[in-house]
Amino acid sequence: MxxxxxxxxxxxxxxTPVNEKLVPRDFVAPFILVTAxxxxxxxxxxxxxxxxxxxxxxxEITRFEAGMVQSAYYLGYFLFSxxxxxxxxxxxxxxxxxxxxxxxxxxxxxxxPAAIVAKYGVFLFALFVIxxxxxxxxxxxxxxxxxxxxxxxxxxxxxxxxxxxxxGAISGVLVGTAFIFSGVELKPAxxxxxxxxxQYESYLRHETMRVLAPYMVLGCVVxxxxxxxxxxxxxxxxxxxxxxxIAGGRRFRGLxxxxxxxxxxxxxxxxxxxxxxxxxxxxxxxxxxxxxxxxIGGYLLTGTLVAFGIGRFSAAYLMRFFxxxxxxxxxxxxxxxxxxxxVLFPGWLGLWALFLTSFFMSVMFPxxxxxxxxDLGPNTKICSSFLVMAxxxxxxxxPLMGLLAExxxxxATAMLIPLCSYGVVAYFAFIGSKKRRxxxx
Length: 441
Fold this sequence. Notes:
mainly alpha, Growth Hormone, Chain: A
């Protein structure tokens, strides 16, 4: 007879993709509404890429200091993901999503006093508040969509909803490029002349104020969505509560008996770090190696996000025929190769290689999320919060890329960090995601 303390790791094989309706008819209305939230949180996430470049100019800060935009943003995710799970575990998805939208909207309004006082730290705090609201949205929306139908179709369903996220990202970058970037890039001689004429401070002030209007409009849209959500009826079973003791004692330690969940958290950390770091410094890569303007860099960033969106929609279709983990594994290997080109051949060849990585990274976040939550039962909400907390990878790896770029004087060398990160994602895709719960024998 086996020891009671012995553990057995159960491996599951790739499941045959299902061909059925994406979501049951009764759940179409909340599915559409929550899917719209994926668009809504894509906007500020990629406005950050514009802010990094704009703040380097308006506050005269280094790449590392500008990378703190992502640190403040993703710290909000890290600190509020578990509280979000506990709130939704007690009060349901609907309450948590509304609270998230209120925090999101409040953060955008805080851009007004930040612009008035022209303090970089106040902007970082506003981004932190925005991200705290988005932590509620992502902690709730991802598992809600994944569970809204047949479990075997969770990856395909979540990839479909996540496909609207890059549409928000594209909108954010386009708005930022058009309304935040002034197109005025001063040379050292011009800066000196403006300082002599006492006009330079006015110029910096004007550049800082350019970030205000887009965030004010975004705040109005967010509060309107909160009102619409409050008037929408959710499926009764979606708001059932779960045990609030999941964050403590044996139940908490028991979460680590799920290898697919543990590896999912690690893979999510490195994936988000790779994605955020690549996009945050993409414009800088363009300026350093092909010597294009910030506006051209912004439009190229928009293009790579279009590729990201195409990848999301195409992945949702391909998963009808191919196992999600295998598709993600192949995409991870493709990105390792493409980033290597970006590191070794900086210039137009490296630029287009990095441009294409967005297509292949598109499948990763929702697929990691869905595979990490497989077979977790009542632990789904709390485990969802950990997968959202793993977004802290964007706060950790992005400044590290800035430090590496400053130390080596090479933005291309900094791309080694995303390259290694895709290796972790590939391991999860081919091996880690196929490990299921460790159970007592």
